[in-house]
Here is the input.
Amino acid sequence: MISTTRQPQPAGRRVVIEPSASYLDTRNSYVPAEFQHDFDVAECALDEQLETLQRQYATASRAASKARFELELLEKRTDLHPHVIAQAKRQRAAADTRCQRLIRAIDALEERLENE
Here is the structure.
């Protein structure tokens, strides 16, 4: 039962008592009718964000693969200065790190979508 405090009202006036915000927080599936459109838009935005992250991951994965391949080719050469190989290693590490971060973001967003 919702408890609310009522203010004295003049005779003949009706008072509409809305549920408190704390009550609304206890019902996860409750979406007021006037906010249903906003809720649907928010869900679509999450889907679009997930698609964007997946495209970014695909691009980052290709970049990481290319960086690994280039590093392997550079390491076979003997005529290069060591700083060139060090730079290629940093690029490969950065590409791998980006892939890992994107996977974590995708996993978190997918979990959020499943829980809603």
User: Anything to note?
Assistant: DSSP finds three helices and no strands in the chain.
